[in-house]
Specification:
Blueprint (H helix, E strand, L loop, with lengths): L16 E5 L3 H13 L3 E5 L2 H10 L4 E5 L7 H10 L5 E6 L9 H7 L4 E4 L4 H13 L12
Parallel strand pairs: 1-2, 1-3, 3-4, 4-5
Helix pairs in contact: 2-3
Length: about 150
């Protein structure tokens, strides 16, 4: 029987640092609190421009970004990361679906996001997604499909 890695429970510590990018300050703050409760280090910024500034100064293990935001949306942030050759594990999230528009979560995958999640979601879904990403090996640059 293969060994199974233990997963973090509430109150346990983790060395992973997360950055949450969302212009909805209530959602972002509640996600920071949730991740901290599960032992992660988490911070938040309100847009892609702020995220890029943060990422140029600090190490982040996983970036969780909304797609629709003023002053640099999530897709623009993914493009900037690619252009600057910043290899980053990314979860893209959105609640926006509009007629006659492409599936933006699929577009985010094509632009380098490793995973996506549709809003609204249960908080534990996101915790589990991040845990799975941390348990998985980091993809090589050649494994990441970006357009």
């Amino acid at each position: 029987m293969p060994d199974k890695k233990p997963t973090l429970g509430e109150g346990e510590s983790c060395s992973a640092h997360l950055l949450i990018v969302d212009d909805n300050s209530r959602l972002a703050a509640s996600l920071v609190t949730l991740f901290q409760r599960f032992g992660f280090t988490a911070a938040t910024v309100r847009n892609g421009k702020g995220a890029l500034e943060y990422l140029l100064k600090r190490h982040v293990d996983i970036l969780i970004t909304d797609i629709f935001m003023p002053n640099g949306d999530g897709l623009e942030l993914l493009r900037e990361l690619y252009q600057r050759k910043i290899l980053m594990r990314v979860v893209a999230m959105t609640g926006g679906e509009y007629p006659n528009m492409p599936d933006l979560l699929h577009v985010a995958i094509l632009m380098g996001a490793e995973c996506t999640i549709q809003k609204p979601f249960e908080p534990m879904q996101l915790i589990q997604l991040v845990r799975e990403m941390l348990d998985a090996s980091v993809p090589d640059q050649g494994d990441v499909s970006r357009s």
